[in-house]
Amino acid sequence: MTARGPALGLLLLLLCPAQVLAWSCVWYGECGIASGDKRYNCQYSGPPKPLPKDGYDLMQELCPGLFFDNVSVCCDVQQLRTLKDSLQLPLQFLSRCPSCFYNLMNLFCELTCSPRQSQFLNVTETEDYVDPVTNQTKTNVKELQYYVGESFANAMYNACRDVEAPSSNDKALGLLCGKDAEACNATNWIEYMFNKDNGQAPFTITPIFSDLPAHGMEPMNNATKGCDESVDEVTGPCSCQDCSAVCGPKPQPPPTPAPWRLLGLDAMYVVMWTTYMVFLLVFFGAFFAVWCYRKHYFVSEYTPIDSNIAFSVNASDKGEASCCDALGAAFEGYLRRLFSQWGSFCIRNPDCIIIFSLAFIAACSSGLVFVRVTTNPVDLWSAPGSQARLEKEYFDTHFGPFFRTEQLIIQAPNTSVHTYQPYPSGSDVPFGPPLDIGILHQVLDLQTTIENITAFYNNETVTLEDICVAPLSPYNKNCTIMSVLNYFQNSHSMLDHKIGDDFFVYADYHTHLLYCVRAPASLNDTSLLHDPCLGTFGGPVFPWLVLGGYDDQNYNNATALVITFPVNNYYNDTEKLQRAQAWEKEFINFVKNYKNPNLTISFTTERSIEDELNRESNGDVFTVLISYAVMFLYISIALGHIKSCSRFLVDSKISLGVAGILIVLSSVACSLGIFSYIGIPLTLIVIEVIPFLVLAVGVDNIFILVQTYQRDERLQGETLDQQLGRVLGEVAPSMLLSSFSEAVAFFLGALSKMPAVHTFSLFAGMAVLIDFLLQITCFVSLLGLDIKRQEVSCCQDDSLFTVWNQSEAAGGCHLCSSLSSQKNRLDILCCVRGSEDGTGIQASESCLFRFFRNSYSPLLLKDWMRPIVIAVFVGVLSFSIAVLNKVEIGLDQSLSMPDDSYMLDYFRSLKYLHAGPPVYFVLEEGHDYTSLRGQNMVCGGMGCNNDSLVQQIFTAAQLDNYTRIGFAPSSWIDDYFDWVKPQSSCCRVYNSTDRFCNASVVDPACIRCRPLTPEGKQRPQGEDFMRFLPMFLSDNPNPKCGKGGHAAYSSAVNILGNDTGVGATYFMTYHTVLQTSADFTDAMSKAILIARNITTTMGLEGSGYRVFPYSVFYVFYEQYLTIIDDTIFNLSVSLGAIFLVTLVLLGCELWSAVIMCVTIAVIVVNMFGVMWLWGISLNAVSLVNLVMSCGISVEFCSHLTRAFTVSTKGGRVERAEEALSHMGSSVFSGITLTKFAGIVVLAFAKSQIFQIFYFRMYLAMVLLGATHGLIFLPVLLSYIGPSINKAKSSATQERYRGTEREQLLNF
For residues 437 and 439, what is the distance between their CA atoms, to the nearest angstrom? Predict the structure, then answer.
């Protein structure tokens, strides 16, 4: 051991001088000009030279690893300055990951200054250079080889590959590698950085990658830092956003819930099919058991299977009336007497009633002068107090409204794909049809023409420049135009710019485009063209926003161009808003009339949907009018009971029908007027739906009243007013039941938060209530006058009722004081007398009534028919329940457009887009950005929390198929930290005034904002944070500093007064492409989930502020997040109200109310079945129709239910048959045929929304209502209807004792 020690020491002494002597340079200092302001280095093969002391700061800043001993290096101070300038762009994008930038600086420092350059640098080409100052001949190094360790290159790339560029929503290497980040690797990245064609390298440096010595050279293979390692004690490892190794395994979305299946089939189908089979087994088992029981105990097997006989349910029928029976009978008697007296009064005093009614109608309808119609889609679909609406208000208030979007999607159908062959080498690149040079010139002409469109508003001109988004205004007034032409500065000459000779083209628009789609924020495309990619407005043009129809990220394969003109929106500034709308109108007119056989254009503007909705409504006015005209014509004719052709105008009731229709329309006008007085605006749904609803209710009541009178026989000694009073006493309680239950149901439906349902319910409830009041007043009086027309002569047209005189005998007001004994006066022309056939006015039964009484009712209620009916209807119900959860939710935008709308072409072209709507994650005012803790909770760079706001959005973007967040967020705070670093040339101030100095300013008085010390390299905090932030937000990007925040973030940060703090801020990204309502709804719900999770992990609960997502479509799609709950609530409230009103007005007939509400519920459930079969989605429009179907179902069910309860027949079958006979014909001829006639016309409407949500749903409403009311309900009542009310039966027999009616009751 002792002998080896001196020997080893001697060996070291011998080797050390040898190693020192081996350290030599290949260059030192700068020589001739290479290009522009770039110079070659001077060849030098001597030993390293001590660095002058004025270069110490630069050496410590750039290459601290070479700062030792006397700092002998192979570069002078000027070379260090050149190195610093060359590294500004990588510094701005890569320094957010210190280890990445450390490795990169190692690569360049070893190249530029290493004292052992000669070991890994091999000069391959030089040229002589005469220094013009000293006249000395020097040698320029024109080319050299750089031997780089392959392991070093890979380690450097691995440390940098995940680094984000927050302002461009892309990887930083996508901006620094000369190609897309995904196509970048260690070798082509370094080759690109050392290629002189990139615009940064002054001469060609050829990297040779090897870990082993080659050709006598020792590759540079310095130690590297992984992105998960700290560079020093001050800085930490890179953030999770910039280093996947820090994050751990990539997060996985939660598994999709498995569909509920049984036996390999949809579980709902299996459950409902099984339930239905069990029901049939039990039901038919009970049916046959009763049949056997009857056959055993009763003589005739044809005795009806009535539950009064089969079961002892009504064993108490023979006993005394219960308290409820007595109460019900008393209430029924009170209503009967009240309406009888009221009817008699109306008949005796028609003129007073009519005048009062007209005055009431005039007073209420006068409110229409204050009417306001809401067409703003936001007001139509979003409640003022909804979460999305409040968040929209917050965003608009703090950041300004989201800009108005005018967009073109352009295709070139007549142009084929062409191939670009790069020179001198490279694989062929196909270019899609719209990227042909000729097409691009034509599109640029179109774009320029649109820019020059001039509109007029209030005698002033409005141009795009007046209203467009110009983020750098007033320094740069260029409008933001998201167009591929902005890569060429919207210039024909730049589009034609090419470099080449007579034989080859070295670079042209293909070259520039391929570079710009990879580095849209670049100010130099680094090709031979050296043209900028940054848009003329000062911001990047992302390729996924301006190109469409490409595969993966092969932008060159685009099949469509997308041009977007963002226009300023205005918050509470109607004047400016209307100026923008005026320009949009001219834009629409221009594009509609633009003709170019080479281009296919689909387009939209911010006002397009609203305009097309208005046009659609106007376009179908004629169809709707025809629909109403058909219903009016039917009503006018069907009310009369024509006995013969000669008595057509005598027996017709055209005048009365028209009067009834006018009453219905008047009730609608009164409802609109009353709420217009209050200030509640109308909506299109109210205007389109409520007349249909009220007409259904009103017509049903009119037919029941008139036809009941026509079938009634005037009693002996009974006057006309007494007879009509008695008739009204019979039917008015039924009219009250239907109308009041509907009105209450609608008024309670107004509790809904959905604007469409809320407004509809208010107007509908009031219209139905007023219609009932006018029917029992004005219409009853008009009915009396019409009957008098048939009985006595009239001196004036009965439709005018203009002659009013006092009749002393009656002591009241009457029409025509002198009444002759002449009968048979014509309808409408009542002064003309018709033929006399001696029949006069007699009780008569219509053919329809006789059909229901003699044929239909007995057939329906036969023993063998009733089980079939129950089985069929329960089967339909089971099917509807099975598909209940399969009805789609949402509203396809295309359905709301007319068939000939230009918007349909635009909706079809949305498939070409590759980015969805922008989404902003807003951090409300209150957060402390000046503290380290507050910064770490938000930022995404080094030292930030792994669950910070930016990091969580970044993580969500990695799961884009699940979260529908398509890109990493743009983060103003991370870019600010990169901008303010002392190593960067971005943040500079004048040393005398402390005012901001842009990086492009060349002035010795401009110094860096923060010192190049360990403290200065830390993030700014406290006052420093607020001192430099306004400078960052006012800095425009330039070649020396691409991080300026003016264009990207000027609207993203609210600076509080006097620059004392930061208020609300946002972090923007984009959704993935969204096409269907389900896509939009899911994207919104996922964004809300992400924001809530951010709020929780930041610990902001109870802090008074939070994080929320905002996108322009949220206010429209928020309703679909709660549409199921809203549907259940509204339909439950409607059914509950109907039940309570029915219970009261039927005199506490609990079981009757239950049966009626069950039938209505079955109708509503079956409506969902029809919606599934017919492809009708659940949304605000269909929900309004469902609520309305509850109301209309009351008309089909209530009259028959009440007729059943008041019937005095013995068994349920007989009572059901009587109720169906008397009420069925009126319901069928009234609401059913009237509505059916009008609905059929709607099938010819031009708009799809009318065809689907009105024709289909209205038709389903009427058919389901009619079948359930006239088929299912009578059968159900015949099985489980309530027992006869003995008190009512006794009261009825007592009332008609001694008249011929007594015989009919006992028949």
Answer: 5
